[in-house]
Amino acid sequence: MVTKNRKNILILDPERDTAELFSRALENHRDGYKCYWVSNSQQARSLLGEIPFSFLLADVSILQNDHFLLLDSLQGMTFRTIVIANAYVNEKKGIRTAIEKGAAGYFIKPVMVCTLRKLIDDFSVA
Asked: Is a pLDDT exceeding 60 seen at residue 4?
């Protein structure tokens, strides 16, 4: 059941453990956050077509493997999804490309829970 005030967050990450940590951090922070996990761009496209997501936390390595086509496809969707790229410190070029392709922000992994929560909260207010 999708409630009107709930913010759906899609987590695109190759690692289930990382996605679960992000999900727990966000869902335990606000009752209004519901997280979904996918491990590749094709799964992300499928869910983005079915569910209105407020946020997409996208791992840069997956975006790069997809040649950033997922970000291009988001521009044609009716529901606005805020993309926040995430990467390890050695993937800065990928972060730069994600921002150029429309990502609203980014964070470097590993990320502190309070930092991740604040980032989502800040974009929720904007």
From this structure: no
**pTM greater than 0.70 (yes/no):** yes
Q: What is the 3-state secondary structure (H, E, C) of the chain?
A: CCCCCCEEEEEECCCHHHHHHHHHHHHCCCCCEEEEEECCHHHHHHHHHHCCCCEEEEEHHHHHHCCCHHHHHHCCCCCCCEEEEEEEHHHHHHHHHHHHCCCCEEEEECCCHHHHHHHHHHHHHC
Q: 34 forms bridges with which residues in the sheet?
A: 8
CB 13 within 8 A of CB 43: no
Look at the chain and report how many structural domains it folds into.
1
Q: Is residue 1 domain-resident?
A: no
Q: Which residue carries 């904007």 as its tokens?
A: 126
Is 96 inside a domain boundary?
yes
